[in-house]
Write a structure and sequence with these properties.
homodimer, alpha/beta, 2 domains
Chain lengths: ~450, ~450
């Protein structure tokens, strides 16, 4: 796609989204149901395209875990379609009245949820990510520009074609198939990142380097995280068995996840007692331990250097450091952590509360595994990403990450001039109880 | 300040903010009360500094309106101190429990408000802006980097010195005076815009060009708006007197404001009837009218060209265009508008609702003046800015623009491994009623 063509497509998409925002909930839900049917009906098309991608990827020597992520089979299709139907069953995320206030007699202010606008979703490998995010965008009335991994190009094309066909059949002409588009090249991504006039939010999913590249190269808001350097701090007041159990789960249950821990901090008063059993438990799971000098004097391990404290291993490796106080643990986490997820193991509630207030992270846990930091486990339904930013949405982000709001003010000819000067009218600013304006369903 | 010194100061500020976030509400409120006292006690210092700024500005030939904004007198000081005391009386914006959910027995998830972190506030001229934003940051536990207009440098230095002295007297040593800093040069601003690691949000206040420069030159989130191209659409079903009354207020009550209208759209069926009286009313207030061809055939006016539809006059000038339908009006606004504030004058509720849903703007009004788009008039208390972005906060933004949240999860040794595999435990995901965790006051 040349740059002028892309610019034109995005402009058309930008306008189409404004019409999509007006599409009633019934139509958006009917779209999703029809989409699930069509994906199953046209599964052969998808599997053929996916087989072609897989063949090319194998020939290019793609690593097995990546091939597994790329493969789109009947099981993944079924689960994707279940996901779509779940989304169609959710309450309408837009047209919700969030706040209502009388400013003066007959002058009523309402804050109402609405779509963000156009989302740029840039993801690697997994074609199921396309289905999920595009369906969430339909539900919430957002336009979507998709860029998948080049190794999944044919699968992504097949999926996008189905979205577009269902769109032509089910949506008003002003929306049609224009609300969703697939871009295919790195050059297109570079161009997209500069189109802040039309793109409201970028959601990148992928490696740390990939997300960091996106963040460094756009002024558009980015929802996501580059690093997941998570900690488990074992306090002076820790229960030893909880400490070991949680540390092992947080490190080993899925070490490649962003919410797995990379560093264990342990209070010096408990190190000699806990470290031997902890290191045995970790080593049973095949974990390599890198300890500071004090740790090395208690258990046998590799030496940790300064770089270890800020390294996301994403592997069965853990660094361990001994600290002399909870304050030192907090300082370490706030210095080396990435503001993702950190947990304290302790029995003293006041220490837990101090830790959770003082650690500046999206998720701060007490006596449980960092691996719980996840939209599904949090009960958010769909997950659009995990954010370590503090603007818009933080931590695991559900559908509300795709939602903005607008202010509606209804009057009867009210003008500001009457509220100024000597005989100025006064605002009443009376909070009104909330009721759903558009019941929607 | 050289670049290394600035980097060091910001790093120290970044750490100090983490301690500020832990300062109890009573201490933050006591700080504000003491601050108001000290500002009054040391008013001579401030006025002397301001007199020096004014003298230099006069010698440099600064325009009278700018001199008026720069002048900081007893009236402005009194009103600033009243503002501070009001802020000290507000409920705690942090430590509020926003959401609470049982994930499983003994595993309780809480979403709790917290400071954003470090705010970069870049403003022009008005020294009272410094007092307001720094006080809001103290209340909400945020660190603040301030850059005022160079013409107000000595006043801003005097004000910052008082903040720092009160900080040393009232705050824990780990915070001290380090949570607030004043930077003084354009080079420092350029450097600040690149310090995304330490700065969480930039709030620029000033001219359109100034805000646009900030937005174009940082990957840090920016709260604000560059353009305020606001519209009044007079519908087929409009009440003529409301149309005239609101148009005149929205254009003339304070034409230099961002929420003043620049364009009036009028339905073709009503143009011949309404335009003559409307133009008389506007001309009585000294407004220059620029109309499209059809408008010119009804009233005498200057011709409007394509550029007029996207020009923010900030002056007693208005462009008028005739449209054939409400859809055309919406299309015009979504094409040329800046997503700030737009109003419809009409008697048919269905037209009003259509307009308010279809116009993609922060504020969409019905039968009232766009000039109501303001944090104080909306009843938000303090205003930190008006945002035309759809991320984080939109429209007039109160204290909640300085607030983020964190997720706290409290368990009893819970691990994720138990929720996977064949005998997986199931999440209960039971919503819990909200109660204030820290009553605070």
């Amino acid at each position: 796609m040349n740059t002028m063509q892309l610019e034109h497509d995005i402009q058309v998409l930008y306008q189409a989204q404004k019409s999509l925002a007006m599409v009633p909930l019934e139509v958006r839900n009917a779209f999703l149901k029809r989409l699930a049917e069509e994906l199953e009906r046209r599964s052969e098309e998808i599997f053929l395209a996916n087989a072609a991608d897989l063949l090319e990827a194998q020939q290019a020597g793609l690593a097995t875990p990546l091939l597994k992520r790329l493969k789109f089979d009947i099981a993944k299709l079924k689960s994707a379609c279940e996901g779509i139907l779940q989304i169609s069953g959710l309450p309408d995320p837009i047209h919700r009245v969030l706040e209502q206030r009388e400013l003066d007699e007959g002058l009523i202010l309402t804050r109402e949820s609405c779509p963000i606008g156009v989302i740029g979703m840039i993801f690697e490998s997994r074609p199921d990510a396309l289905i999920q995010i595009a369906s969430l965008c339909m539900k919430s009335g957002n336009g979507i520009v998709l860029k998948g991994g080049s190794e999944a190009l044919q699968t992504n094309r097949a999926l996008t074609a189905i979205y577009k066909d269902v769109s032509r059949a089910m949506l008003p002409e002003a929306v049609g198939a224009a609300w969703i588009t697939l871009i295919e090249t790195r050059e297109s991504v570079a161009q997209l990142l500069k189109m802040g006039e039309y793109i409201d939010l970028i959601i990148p999913r992928g490696s740390k380097q990939f997300v960091q590249y996106i963040m460094d190269n756009t002024s558009i808001a980015v929802l996501g995280h580059a690093d997941g350097i998570c900690h488990c701090y074992i306090d002076q007041s820790a229960d030893m068995q909880k400490a070991i159990r949680v540390s092992v789960d947080a490190k080993c249950q899925y070490p490649a996840a962003c919410n797995a821990i990379e560093t264990i901090l342990i209070h010096s008063d408990r190190a000699a007692e806990i470290l031997p059993e902890l290191s045995q438990a970790l080593q049973r799971e095949g974990v390599e331990i890198r300890g500071d000098e004090q740790v090395s004097s208690i258990i046998s391990c590799l030496p940790a250097n300064e770089d270890d404290w800020s390294t996301e291993y994403l592997d069965l490796i853990v660094s361990i450091r001994i600290v002399d106080s909870i304050e030192e643990a907090v300082r370490h986490i706030n210095t080396y952590g990435s503001g993702h997820t950190d947990t304290i193991i302790c029995e003293l509630p006041e220490n837990a509360e101090y830790f959770m207030d003082a650690v500046d992270a999206a998720d701060v846990f007490w006596n449980c595994s960092t691996r719980f930091a996840d939209g599904f486990r949090f009960g958010l339904g769909a997950e659009v990403g995990i954010s370590t930013h503090k603007i818009h949405a933080r931590g695991p982000v559900g559908l509300e990450g795709l939602i903005s709001y607008k202010w509606k003010l209804r009057g009867a000819g009210h003008i500001v001039a009457e509220y100024t000067g000597e005989h100025a009218r006064h605002f009443t600013h009376r909070e009104l109880s909330l009721h759903k304006e558009h019941s929607g369903e």
